Amino acid sequence: MKNILAIETSCDDTSVAIVNSKAEVILCLTASQDLVHEPFGGIVPEIASRNHTKHLLPLVEKAMDTSGLSWKDISGIAVTNRPGLVGSLIVGLVTAKTLALAYEIPFIGVHHIEGHIMAPFLRDDEYKGPDFFKDPFLALVVSGGHTQLYEVNGFGHYQVLGQTMDDAAGEAFDKFAKMMGLGYPGGVQVDRLAKSGNIKAFSFPRPLLNEDHFNFSFSGLKSAAQRQLEKLPQDKDEPLVADLCASYQQAIVDVLCGKLVKASFDKGIKNVIVSGGVSANSSLRNHLQAEAEKNGWQLAIPPLRFCTDNAAMIALAGHFRLQQGDQSSQELAPQARAEL
Predict the structure, then answer these.
(1) Candidates 1.10.10.10, 3.30.420.40, 3.30.70.2190, 3.30.70.100; correct CATH number of 3-127+306-323?
(2) What is the pLDDT of residues 122-134, one digit of tens each?
(3) At the fourth CATH level, which superfamily is domain 137-301?
(4) Is the full-model pTM beyond 0.90?
(5) What is the band of 42 on the pLDDT scale with cuts at 50, 70, 90?
(6) How far apart are CA 147 and CA 158, in angstroms?
């Protein structure tokens, strides 16, 4: 496989990328919909899919023009077909199928989570990810819709060690931000405000942290935050808001890091990757680096541009899939829910 063109439209961001066989990102273009969904305080599926139809083909054309490549230089097309918002997935999948037919290029449907697992191994001018770990590694994928911990024994071989039993970590951030009236996307706002806050100002629970398994739960934390907010004045000054954000954020970080450390010790695995939108959180990244130094991990976290949903990670996963002989048919369908 020379160059893979990939499309990612699983949620609200429209992304197109071209990645070569050395995992080097030739380009990655993304059209964000944050401003469109901000008035609603969250993603509206119908609006998301409508905007994908507006942005996707112009992004494909721009990717080909900017890269200077012709369609003869594209040896495969990868597209997210599961899981995600069905309307959004359909836009990307139909476009990928049409391009594959028009230019007689093989295409492959990619699982969105497998893309996130590949993200730390991407490379560009500013970031040189490690070579794909040959030994088993732990993969924590944490985002607005997913919080899952895997043991990875080579590409395509994933064992779920733990997953969220209710809300994902990113959802817990966004719902807390909505309670606080901080705006959208909420996780970014909480992270920004927490920098000047006191992590010990409020006592929030660490759900399931001391349980003898690797599952996660954040609904209780969200409920505890709601009860705490009801006790406080409606008009909160900036220091109080900062303390609330710092204390709440620290609870999530403690749970994520604690489960990852436990898994590393129990499984005897010191290769660790963390990816997904929440891996962009500055406090989480700092705590993970500290745990890596303390426990002798080889830790890989993608740069911020590859943390959130992006087509580059889908391209790399698609490259590996096509390289091992997998190929999707024109009958491939989108799936709202799908286990990896």
Answers:
(1) 3.30.420.40
(2) 999 999 989 888 8
(3) ATPase, nucleotide binding domain (3.30.420.40)
(4) yes
(5) confident
(6) 15
